[in-house]
Design brief:
Rossmann fold, binds 1,4-dihydronicotinamide adenine dinucleotide, single chain, seven-stranded parallel beta sheet
Length: 330
């Protein structure tokens, strides 16, 4: 069976080739999946896509015409796939629901620690032989209140780490998590959780959560709150956050995801002129740390992603159903 990978990077080739024990025919394409590049799915029973491949109804039509039967997302989020359109065309869609929640949770902590101890500034300073400490004053995380929005796999892992730091952890989710409550996490309405010293977003992007962080919700936060988003860029109204950084309502921002990231992330644009003024403005703040959707990027996560994706594709192609039902979207 042939699987065509879109938006593939050298590390995708490395890990998917390493774990290809079922000997699928693999075709790695650098192109993003769209109406034009769908041509590359010729002869494929399955296509494997990533976070910024937009699998719209029109793309789905092209794939259906090519007799593609499975769309395998090699990620957890699936806001970029039109599931209704897939269902209508009998195309199965699967994802990797939980490959390594710790990978993302630990990156979230890394961003928080870098921001609050100003490691990003210290690194550059020392390289310039500037050993002064002025301007690098941080604060202890111990004793601070951390607000976790979304306590699924990643939010749960993050909340547990923060409890270990000696933080008070407040959480908001549609359903309170009993294990976390037993561990000491307090579930509250969003308005209460927004009052935390540090707020970290771990819910999916959907119609309810789009621009969850906006002018109104920012006004509910404490002045100088730290905001971290390793979930999806669309959870934040970026312009509202820029205003809040300018007037110091937000004290520091760490983002691994960005609303317009598909035009930028996963590419080396160092020789290009960036036309996106919003990200340029964000990059100009000394208290903003941006990473380019790398929270998932660990050995363990890439291994798990490759193994789960192959297992799902194999099961869907043979029996049409999955042992890991959480992976099946339609
Ligand atoms: P999950 O599905 O295990 O958990 C999501 C949680 O959010 C659930 O508990 C759900 O009840 C909750 N939720 C849903 N709607 C909500 C709302 N309106 N308000 C509050 N909570 C709500 O997902 P997981 O694995 O924890 O991933 C979370 C997100 O992290 C994914 O949707 C994905 O967008 C993002 N992600 C980012 C990665 C990166 O590399 N930066 C890698 C993997 C995932």
């Amino acid at each position: 069976m042939k699987i065509v990978f879109f938006s593939s990077q050298p590390y995708d080739r490395e890990f998917f080739t390493r774990f290809n024990t079922l000997r699928f025919e693999l075709s790695f394409q650098e192109a993003r999946l769209n109406e034009e590049t769908a041509e590359l799915a010729d002869g494929a029973e399955a296509v494997c896509v990533f976070v910024n491949d937009k699998v719209t109804e029109a793309v789905m039509d092209k794939l259906a015409a090519k007799k593609v039967q499975i769309i395998a997302l090699r990620c957890a989020g699936f806001n970029n796939v039109d599931l209704e359109a897939a269902k209508a065309r009998g195309i199965k869609v699967c994802r990797v629901p939980a490959y390594s929640p710790e990978a993302v949770a630990e990156h979230t902590v890394a961003m928080l620690l870098a921001l609050n101890r100003k490691i990003h500034k210290a690194y550059n300073r020392v390289r310039e032989q500037n050993f002064a400490l002025n301007g690098l004053l941080g604060y202890n995380l111990h004793g601070k209140t951390v607000g976790v929005i979304g306590t699924g796999n990643i939010g749960k892992a993050f909340a547990k780490i923060m409890l270990g730091f000696g933080c008070r952890v407040l959480a908001f989710d549609l359903i309170a998590n009993k294990d976390l409550e037993a561990a000491g996490v307090e579930f509250h309405p969003l308005t209460v959780v927004l009052k935390a010293d540090i707020i970290s977003l771990h819910c999916p992007l959907n119609d309810q959560t789009r621009h969850l962080i906006n002018t109104e919700t920012i006004a509910m936060m404490q002045k100088g709150a730290v905001l971290i988003n390793t979930s999806r860029g669309g959870l934040i109204d970026t312009n509202a956050v820029i205003e809040a950084l300018k007037n110091k309502q937000i004290g520091a921002l760490g983002i691994d995801v960005y609303e317009q990231e598909e035009k930028l992330f996963f590419r080396d644009l160092s020789e290009h002129i960036i036309k996106d003024d919003t990200i340029q403005r964000l990059m100009s703040f000394p208290n903003v740390l941006i990473t380019a959707h790398q929270a998932f990027f660990t050995e363990e996560a890439l291994s798990q992603i490759a193994m789960t994706t192959f297992t799902s594709i194999d099961q869907l192609s043979q029996k049409g159903n999955l042992t890991n039902q959480a992976a099946l979207l339609v």
